[in-house]
Design brief:
Layout: E1 14-16, E2 27-33, E3 40-47, E4 50-56, H1 68-71, H2 73-77, E5 87-89, E6 98-100, H3 103-121, E7 126-130, H4 132-135, H5 141-149, E8 154-156, H6 163-173, E9 178-179, E10 186-190, H7 200-211, E11 215-219, H8 225-228, E12 232-234, H9 241-254, H10 260-266, E13 267-268, H11 270-277, H12 282-289, H13 293-305, E14 309-310, H14 315-318, H15 323-336, E15 346-347, H16 358-362, H17 369-372, H18 386-389, H19 393-400, H20 416-423, E16 433-437, H21 448-456, E17 460-465, E18 477-480, E19 489-491, E20 499-503, H22 516-526, H23 538-545, H24 553-559, E21 560-564, H25 572-575, E22 584-585, H26 589-593, E23 614-620, H27 634-639, E24 644-647, H28 649-654, E25 662-666, E26 671-678, E27 686-690, H29 708-711, E28 734-742
Parallel strand pairs: 7-8, 7-16, 10-11, 10-14, 11-12, 13-22, 16-17, 17-18, 23-27, 24-26
Antiparallel strand pairs: 1-21, 2-3, 3-4, 5-6, 5-18, 9-15, 19-20, 20-21, 23-28, 25-26, 25-28
């Protein structure tokens, strides 16, 4: 999750920062690194108009570590393969034949073709796939334009990562909480493994909590780096997070360790929840999770008695067939132990009263109810769609003052798999135009063969990128995007924090690279809707958003490291919770009305298939890369030149595999080639697959796609009913059946 200043009394109000130290001949700027989703505070050093160095800031949350992705950013964005000018496809889709065109030519043609598609098929035939933390300056403008045009079919990778967690937390208590690390006594990591090159500020916070005597519990099948420094490590079986949470609740409720006063006054459905929890005696939980029953009980008692405690966001529970229940159970643990919206627990921030939020920018109210009802996936998997979030509109306005709260941009979006099926001609209506901005759509979701079919069936594909990703290779237009060094930026926690962090522009973008703000403005103009994006520049847009502060963005960015609303705990005592009942809904009225089980549950694994005797988990980042990006950077590839699976020594012996051998990993969905890495911290029978591998230096174009068809984990991941979460429709990536076939040598 984004790296923001600590939440506690000391974080209330605004925090200014001294000007970075200057060296002769070197100019400095304060910046936020957007090489991943964390937004770490850094300092850029500039000589002759170019950034020559990125270093850590003096902020105590960041100064001890700066990850390699930020360090190499100047070389990354100066890469000779960077797309610097608009490119138009001139051959067959995927042929690799391109023509340089002007922005004016590109946008005129894009606008004309998109309007034709909308006229023939309706506005819902236009889908957009974005990544806010990669593009940076979208700020809800894409949703704003789509809502005015009438398309509900916006998707993002946050459907599998953080956004869905935010949407599900809203079902329980009406907002998504942020951990108060400064005052917490205990941190619980469900599979999360922050380190010096990944989620750096969270890693630093863990170190600080440990240094002052706090406790760390880690649940992870691997003995990860965080598990190594944990006070208690539970080697949980992949994909069984929901069962483990049931075990904790069983101990806590049976032994009366919960916050009885809070439960009595501020929750609904406690007795029903208790009956469901009784279905999970420790013996059953131990059998499901593979963990010792006494260790489970010990962890539960630690969580309930050492508090206040925090369970930070983790990508692990986002990506399971029991994801909705696992996320809900984590939110329920916080609530029944009295750790929600209290110092040292997890704060419900709400909107910043003086800054226009992305949710307001998006203007969801202009999209008609009829078009909202057409949102793909909302019939079968509605949890984060307009349909699933509709019951929260009135409570949100009652408590927070706004009807729509699109937290981590994970609310009100379409289901990705449903969109791809419609694109492939298998949906309730056709989708014929795809805009993919900064998220390499082909490789960013499950069932890559389906996505390939979907993209080949489009009349128009527009991509904004830095390099020719596999997705870009299938586009009609590839438009050059700027980088975080080349633009101002206002980081806003992706719509769920009342904390705003500014970043100064360090240098001019090369060639004709433009920000996503500029691209959306040009799109609005091309569609004949200039009034929808009325601001002339990104700085003008930021001035509009912070106007109530009484200063412009230039002064804001040079003065403040962070601007935060005054933090108030236990706000629910004045307003209630932003749920239909006004309380924490242990028994969810929203899920019940949608036709789902209103209580958390655990779906057992599908029957074992002897043809696929191993289990794999994927979705895992490597410290050198972010998602599918970074493979074009020589310094990174020197550190991690090949995709590597991790297996235990026992599994290696069983399959007669040695370090650095090449194997084929196969599931029912597809297969990839990958190098063997034997790791003692892996359990027998479990295979770890890294996320997002392709090789930009290899052959481009359909049939090759720079190795994406050969190495990408998305080739392995199904999205059928057995391996998706029912309420959300997101894929199960933690414990998929697979098999390994030994290859005779390295790929040629």
């Amino acid at each position: 999750m984004p790296g923001v200043p600590s939440v506690g009394p000391s974080a209330a109000g605004s925090r200014s920062i001294p000007r970075p130290h200057q060296r002769p001949g070197v100019e400095t700027r304060k910046a936020l690194c957007a090489s991943c989703d964390i937004a770490c505070s850094v300092v850029t050093e500039i000589q002759k108009g170019r950034v020559t160095r990125v270093r850590s800031s003096d902020n105590p949350l960041f100064k001890d570590n700066i990850c390699i992705k930020g360090i190499v950013a100047p070389k990354n964005f100066a890469n000779p393969d960077r797309v610097l000018y608009p490119q138009k496809r001139v051959g067959e889709r995927g042929s690799g034949k391109w023509q340089r065109v002007s922005w004016e030519e590109a946008m005129a043609d894009i606008g004309q073709r998109l309007k034709k598609i909308i006229a023939e098929h309706g506005p819902e035939a236009w889908a957009v796939s974005t990544s806010q933390w990669n593009t940076g300056t979208d700020h809800g403008l894409g949703r704003r334009i789509m809502n005015h045009v009438g398309s509900p079919n916006w998707i993002s990778g946050v459907a599998l990562c953080a956004g869905n967690t935010a949407a599900i937390n809203r079902l329980t208590y009406g907002w998504y909480p942020w951990p108060d690390y400064d005052n917490t006594n205990l941190i619980v990591l469900f599979g999360h493994n922050p380190g010096k090159n990944s989620w750096v500020p969270i890693y630093n916070q863990i170190q600080r909590v440990k240094a002052r005597g706090g406790t760390l519990i880690v649940l992870d099948p691997r003995k990860s780096e965080c598990a190594e420094m944990a006070d208690l490590w539970l080697p949980i079986k992949a994909g069984t997070d929901a069962a483990m949470a049931f075990g904790w609740l069983k101990v806590i409720l049976d032994e009366g360790l919960h916050d009885k006063a809070f439960v009595e006054r501020w929750t609904v459905g406690f007795e029903a929840l208790k009956k469901r929890v009784d279905e999970f005696p420790l013996e059953r939980v131990a059998a499901i999770t593979g963990c010792d029953a006494e260790m489970i009980a010990k962890a539960a008692r630690m969580y309930a008695t050492l508090g206040p405690s925090v369970i930070p966001w983790t990508p692990i529970t986002d990506q399971q067939r029991n994801s909705t229940s696992a996320i809900r159970l984590q939110s329920i643990l916080r609530a029944v132990c009295g750790y929600i919206d209290v110092p040292g627990g997890e704060a419900l921030m709400g909107f910043h009263p003086q800054i226009v939020s992305e949710s307001e920018v998006e203007m969801h109210h202009v999209l008609s109810e009829g078009q909202k009802a057409k949102q793909l996936g909302s019939d079968k998997h509605p949890a984060f769609t307009y349909r699933g979030q509709a019951a929260l509109r009135e409570p949100c306005k009652r408590v927070w003052g706004h009807e729509y709260a699109n937290q981590v941009t994970g609310c009100f979006m379409a289901n990705p798999s449903a969109v791809f099926r419609a694109m492939a001609g298998e949906g309730p209506y056709p989708v014929k135009a795809l805009f993919s901005f900064g998220n390499n759509t082909l490789m960013g979701f499950a069932n890559m063969p389906l996505i390939m079919k979907a993209m080949l069936n489009q009349d128009l594909i527009v991509v904004q990128e830095h390099v020719m990703t596999p997705t870009a290779q299938l586009a009609d237009y590839v438009l050059p995007g700027d980088s975080w060094l080349e633009r101002p930026w206002m980081f806003d926690g992706y719509g769920w924090l009342s904390l705003y962090k500014p970043s100064q522009k360090s240098m001019e973008p090369p060639g004709e690279c433009k920000s996503t703000f500029e691209l959306w403005k040009l799109t609005a103009n091309a569609l004949g809707l200039p009034e929808v994006v009325p601001w002339e520049t990104l700085e003008d847009f930021y001035d509009y958003r912070i106007a109530k502060l009484g200063i412009g963005f230039e002064e804001f960015s040079s003065t403040y490291e962070v601007h935060a609303d005054t933090l108030e705990f236990r706000k629910y005592e004045k307003t209630g919770f932003a749920t239909p009942s006004g309380k924490v809904e242990l028994h969810s009225s929203i899920l019940e009305d949608l036709g789902f089980d209103p209580l958390p549950y655990f779906r057992d694994e599908p029957p074992a298939d002897p043809a696929f005797p191993l289990a794999m988990f994927t979705g895992v980042r490597e410290g050198e890369y972010f998602q599918t990006g970074g493979r074009h950077i020589p310094e990174m590839r020197a550190r991690k030149p090949e995709p590597v699976l991790f297996i235990s020594p026992g599994t290696a012996r069983q399959y007669h595999l040695d370090e650095n051998e090449w194997v084929e990993v196969e599931t029912r969905t597809g297969k990839i080639e990958i190098m063997v890495g034997v790791r003692p911290n892996m359990p027998d029978g479990l295979v770890r697959i890294p996320h997002g591998w392709w090789k930009p230096e290899t052959e481009q174009g359909l049939g090759k796609l720079s190795g994406a068809l050969r190495y990408a984990d998305a080739m392995l991941c199904p999205d059928d009913d057995d391996f998706i979460d029912l309420e959300q429709g997101i894929p199960h990536l933690k414990g998929l059946p697979c098999r390994i076939n030994k290859l005779s040598g390295a790929p040629q």
